[in-house]
Design goal:
372 residues, alpha+beta, Rossmann fold, OB fold (Dihydrolipoamide Acetyltransferase, E2P), 2 domains, 9 helices, 20 strands, 34% strand
Length: 372
């Protein structure tokens, strides 16, 4: 396997569109890196540059110790799994998986061995004689994955491979791909994998690290839990998490000798451990971010509580989401389902756990409490 390094990478198309801006990213040997972001953020463009399907306008891209800017795709030691499977319809699963090895003139015995090993690992041995039209979407995607595996590439590239599958199959396949990565590592053959998705659930459950992108820029690169609990900026905070992090816009002012976030008639006092760090922003407008699970129902209006009108209730079995409105901002509270019965039109009082809040600068949108 091999590491992948992007140093000061830029992509500018002939029409002047600047797709990628000064990308610096190092993917370690054997790491599972997920590139995630909204449509149009250039994550697939970056993957295609690693594959050699898009040229590098500026900067240096290397796989292992080799600079690959001008290296053709076939010489990069990569294998790509596409969204649409890209299987030959007239070939069996075996023939699809073996095709690349036959083209490379590998010995027949070696081809048979590699295909058999990959098929066993992916649990598709009984599908090898079938053609794509005789298989389900999930089975076709496993064959496509097997075709990449038999080549024993330095780097696996996945371009939204599960987006054509239904919800249940997506869960099954993402677990299978994660398990494959773990099995290869346990067997002493760790695979470097780069996986593109717009689905944050895939990103959070599959990646060793996630690279969050927006408009051709890297927003944050870290472990899934780190970006969830310690977002670098407002974009990351709102993009990662479902429901999204609640955002309120207000002013930091001193109340009763302590720094507090003010919105309308509501005052939320910052905890002692955040007072010093936020003091520089006294008198300035900021965004206060807090996740739905860091709100709880309160019996009475007290410190850091707010009364709000319930606009909608989403029942999800084990939990429910209470949608409310505070000073023109939607605020969602996540509750366990056995808690108090509430419905749209009711008023409720909930308390903000201010020790778990984030503050984002109005102008830069940087997280004031980001600690890396």
């Amino acid at each position: 396997m091999a590491s992948v390094k992007l140093h000061d990478i830029n992509k500018v198309y002939d029409n002047g569109y600047h797709a990628l801006h000064d990308i610096n990213l190092e993917i370690e040997d054997g790491e599972f890196m997920v590139l995630v972001g909204p449509s149009g953020c250039a994550k697939s463009t970056m993957l295609r540059m690693v594959a050699g399907l898009e040229s590098v306008t500026d900067g240096e891209l290397s796989i292992g110790e080799q600079v690959c800017n001008d290296l053709p795709p076939k010489d990069r030691g990569i294998a790509m799994v596409f969204q649409n499977y890209a299987l030959y319809p007239h070939m069996t699963a075996y023939e699809n998986m073996a095709f690349g090895l036959e083209t490379a003139k590998k010995p027949k015995e070696e081809i048979e061995k590699r295909v058999a090993e990959a098929a066993e690992l992916l649990e598709i041995t009984d599908l090898l004689s079938r053609k794509p039209k005789q298989m389900s979407g999930g089975q076709r995607q496993r064959v496509a994955l097997g075709r990449a595996m038999v080549r024993k590439p330095d780097v696996f590239l996945f371009d939204e491979p599960l987006s054509n599958l239904d919800a249940k199959l997506r869960v099954s396949m993402r677990m299978r791909i994660s398990k494959l990565h773990q099995q290869l590592k346990a067997a002493g053959n760790p695979a470097t994998m780069i996986y593109v998705t717009h689905d944050q659930v895939e990103a959070m459950t599959m990646g060793d690290r996630v690279c969050i992108m927006n408009k051709g820029h890297l927003m944050q690169v870290d472990t899934p839990m780190e970006v969830y609990h310690n977002p670098k900026n407002k974009f990351v905070a709102e993009f990662i998490g479902s429901p999204a992090m609640n955002m309120l816009y207000g002013k930091l002012e001193i109340h009763d000798g302590k720094l507090a976030f003010n919105i309308g008639d509501n005052v939320f006092t910052l905890p002692d451990e955040k007072q010093t760090q936020a003091s520089v922003w006294e008198g300035r407008f900021v965004y206060l971010g807090i996740r739905p699970e860091h709100l709880e129902l309160a019996q009475d209006e007290d410190e850091n509580t707010v009364s709000a009108l319930i606009t909608a209730v989403e029942e999800l079995g084990s939990e429910k989401f209470i949608h409310t409105e505070v000073e023109g901002h939607e605020v969602v509270c996540k509750l366990m389902n056995e808690e108090k019965v509430l419905q749209a039109g009711d008023r409720c009082t909930f308390k903000l756990n201010m020790s778990r809040c984030h503050l984002f600068d109005e102008t830069t949108e940087f997280n004031i409490f980001y600690n890396k």
